[in-house]
Each structure stands twice: as structure tokens, then as C-alpha cells.
Write a structure and sequence with these properties.
alpha/beta; Spore Coat Polysaccharide Biosynthesis Protein SpsA, Chain A; seven-stranded mixed sheet; 8 helices; 39% helix; 18% strand; globular
Length: 237
């Protein structure tokens, strides 16, 4: 069976960047060596993002939309996207153009050997506070759960769909996607990718939800991992 890819794009109030994002995504779809679809997940946007999403889906058959009835947060938006995917591979990218669809092309070379490819953002184009908080959070996560993932929250990933649909989900799980794949016995490849300043709009995360939230989420992950059921069957003797 030939691979096909669905790229999930969670969207919350991104009206200023969507038009430029669609242009970059269109370029990727044209050169992608496998069939690629785009699933836009509107997470309760209150700006003109829903109108832009509907317009794009009406213009391009590669685009589909999923509208949540409120703002549930990134983890829920990603899970909703995964639940609606039917292709063999699932990608994830944010719409702020800090990461770029073109970098997905290098990911495809590592399937089916790996279960997931995760990016490592090079030369981070973020504010000093964002850089420091992200660095502290990544170091703390690696210390606490020993997953050896350099940039767990990098918003550029591809994962085999069967792995994605089997992931245990909880609020904050988007921070642990590579570790959750590893928990299932899956393999994760890490690749350096380009990183750009936010194209437009404002970041949805601040110091509190970059440090305080992840602290408690790591404790929840450790608790879940210690109780995770995993087994293999033995052949009849």
C-alpha cells in the first residue's frame, strides 16, 4: 500500500498568517512525492480565521476543515485531527510560519523505517524569554523522563497513523508525542529544520504555560508511564 499523508494544522486566531501559510502549503503539495491532504482544525477561533478556512477548502480539493465548537487547546485539536485521518501518515504543523511545510520533504525518506520523525528547530528565531523557557523545559523533561528528544514540542512532525491513533491522550500530550511513541515501543528519528520569526499575529503561549503547565504535565506523564500496560505473547511450546 502506497503511503498517503494528512497534515493536521491546528488554528486559533491566525487570520494574519493564514494567506501566506496557504501559499507555502500549496507549494509543498505540488512537489510532495506522495498524495498529501491538509486538515485545518479550527479550535474555536474568534477572528476571521473560520472564513479564511472555509474559503480555502472551497477553492482547493486537497484541503478539508474540522470545526470544534469551542477553544479546547492544542492537544485536543491535534487529537481531533488524528481521529479524522484515514491516510497512512499524519503530519503536524502550526500555521504561524515559524516552521515550513517544505521541511516535510526530508522527513519522508525515513518511512517506513521509523514510526515518527520529529524536528529540531535550528537557530531559534524567538524572543529571549521564549528561548530560555523552552530550553529549561526541554532539559527538565529529558532529566525527568529520559526520552533523549532534543525538541519535543517542535511543531513539525510526521507519524505513522496506526501509532498516532493508539497514543494515550490527555491535556498537554502535545508536549510528549515522541515520548508517547517510544512508550509504545516505536522509533523516533530527529532531524534539524529551519526556524523563522513568527510571520504575524501573537504567540498563544507565555511564561506560565511554558514552564508551570509542562512541570505538572511531566509529573502526569511519569505517573501514566509507570502504569502503562504493555505486553507480548509467547509462542505455544
Amino acid at each position: 500500500m502506497k503511503d498517503e499523508l494528512t497534515i493536521i494544522v491546528p488554528i486559533f486566531n491566525e487570520e494574519e498568517s493564514l494567506s501566506a501559510f496557504f501559499l507555502e502549503m500549496d507549494k509543498f503539495v505540488q512537489v510532495c512525492p506522495i498524495t498529501a491532504k491538509i486538515l485545518l482544525v479550527n479550535d474555536g477561533s474568534t477572528d476571521s480565521s473560520p472564513v479564511l478556512i472555509k474559503d480555502k477548502c472551497g477553492q482547493a480539493v486537497q484541503y478539508e476543515a474540522l470545526f470544534l465548537d469551542g477553544n479546547y487547546g492544542l492537544s485536543t485539536a491535534i487529537k481531533a485531527g488524528i481521529d479524522h485521518c484515514t491516510t497512512t501518515l499524519i503530519g503536524y504543523i502550526d500555521a504561524d510560519l515559524q516552521t515550513h511545510p517544505a521541511d516535510f520533504l526530508s522527513y519522508l525518506d525515513f518511512f517506513p523505517e521509523y514510526d515518527m520523525v520529529n524536528g529540531i528547530r535550528q537557530n531559534r528565531q524567538d524572543s529571549l524569554v521564549k528561548k530560555i523557557s523552552s530550553k529549561v523545559a526541554n532539559k527538565y523533561r529529558r532529566f525527568m523522563i529520559n526520552d533523549n528528544i532534543e525538541d519535543s514540542c517542535c511543531p513539525l512532525k510526521i507519524i505513522k497513523t496506526d501509532r498516532a491513533k493508539a497514543l494515550p491522550f490527555f491535556t498537554g500530550m502535545h508536549r510528549f508525542l515522541p515520548a508517547l511513541v517510544q512508550l509504545q515501543g516505536g522509533t523516533v528519528k530527529q532531524l534539524p529544520i529551519t526556524h523563522s520569526p513568527r510571520y504575524a499575529g501573537t504567540a498563544k503561549y507565555h511564561l506560565h504555560n511554558r514552564l508551570i503547565g509542562p512541570f505538572f504535565d511531566i509529573l502526569a506523564f511519569r505517573w501514566m508511564r509507570s502504569r502503562y500496560i504493555s505486553y507480548t505473547t509467547a509462542p505455544l511450546s
